Amino acid sequence: MKTLLFLQQIDIEEKLKNAPDEGYQIGLILGSFIPFIILVGLAYWMYYAAKKREKNL
């Protein structure tokens, strides 16, 4: 996991250096965080659904 994050971080830093303008930089940063936010939201929803199901039994 750490290796994947390390490799991804290098790629983003390189793209930020070569960005043509600030709009591209903002889009690049948002685009790199959105998948992580979606996965965290999905994990929270699954945890909440499991707790609710356990409570109903």
How is this structure best described in words?
Helix content is 89%, strand content 0%. The model has no long low-confidence stretch (mean pLDDT 83). It starts with a helix and ends with a helix. By secondary structure, it is an all-alpha fold. The longest helix has 35 residues, at 22-56. It contains 2 helices and no strands.
What's this entry about, in short?
This protein is mainly alpha-helical.
Element order: H for helix, E for strand: HH
Quick one: overall form? Answer: elongated
The rounded Rg comes to 17 Å
The helix fraction, in percent, is over 70%
The biggest sheet, with number of strands, parallel, antiparallel or mixed sense and barrel status, is: none
- Poorly predicted ranges (pLDDT <50, ≥5 residues)? none
- Which structural class best describes the helix and strand composition? mainly alpha
Total strand count, please? 0
Count of DSSP H/I helices: 2
- Strand-residue proportion: under 5%
Query: Overall pLDDT, averaged?
Result: 83
Distance between the termini: 36 Å
Summary tags:
mainly alpha; 57 residues
SSE blueprint:
Layout: H1 2-17, H2 22-56
